[in-house]
Amino acid sequence: MTKRVAILISGGGSNMVTLADSMVGDHPARPCLVLSNVPGAGGLAKAEARGIPTAVVDHRGFKGDREGFEKALVSAIDPHVPDILCLAGFMRILTPLFITHYVGKMLNIHPSLLPKYKGLNTHARALEAGDTEAGCSVHEVTAELDGGPILGQARVPIRPGDTPDRLAARVLEQEHRLYPAVLRRFAAGDRTPVHLS
Predict the structure, then answer these.
(1) What is the pLDDT of residues 128-166, one digit of tens each?
(2) Angle of helix 164-187 relative to helix 14-22, nearest 10 degrees?
(3) Binding site for (6R)-10-formyltetrahydrofolate: what residues are annotated?
(4) 41, 166, 179, 195: most buried, per Cβ within 10 A?
(5) H or E stretch including 47?
(6) Model-wide pTM > 0.85
């Protein structure tokens, strides 16, 4: 049975586009929704151009009420009956209330080789540490920030003279390879980690 995938974004949606465009042919999943917490996020128009239903739940209307925001998210997502949720540049930290509702169904992509550099500013932190490589990870979402089981990683060598922006651009290229590969496997019921280099 084809799995239904909801993709959550906050910005331009480049990872959403690679995921949506990969779900064709014999792929075991299809996109059913693209949701953003930012009205006018660039990824919404890209989803609409692909015929994917879209929704917006603006977090700014829930000042200090994270639970109210997450209940509104659930109300927007659940009518589409997703089997899988993909966080693709969704820039909100989710609470156990939301995570428990979709436990075992939610994936996230993070721009570091987890467990290194959870949270923000991953590329700058890798450079400051003198690392020789960076990369990205796809993991299941659990209540621990960027701490769920790792389902795939792609490695990128750090070059002399790299800046956070240069490194981020090369890592993003690998994100666009890794996330669709992991989603395809996950949708088929296979949680064996994917490793790209």
Answers:
(1) 999 999 999 999 999 999 999 999 999 999 999 999 999
(2) 30
(3) 66, 91-94, 108
(4) 179
(5) helix 42-49
(6) yes
